[in-house]
Amino acid sequence: MPRSVNSVASRARRKRIMKLAKGYFGRRKNVWTVAKNAVEKGMLYSFRDRKNKKRTFRGLWIQRINAGARLHGMSYSQFMGKLKANKVDLNRKVLADLAMNHPDAFKAIVDKVK
Q: From 13, 83, 96, 104, which residue has the greatest number of CB atoms within 10 Å?
């Protein structure tokens, strides 16, 4: 009996990878072996950087809170310490948004914890 090859599934699998490689430069977009490697590497980077994005944003929020706190004569660490001592439960994302977009509300928080 002759060997059966499921070319429909093979083609679909390749097509799916090639679709993901759309927009890549050079042979990475249209040569199967190169595109497969490029897409696999891209998937690894995307997995890693979804985790790194959280770190990056936390750092950004800390910088914004620090800048807002220093306008009112406090450092970031003093401000966060006093927040914890006064049991103000606002996370860094919210505090950073207040410091950036609602300075009067942020000033009220700073005055409350001073």
A: 96
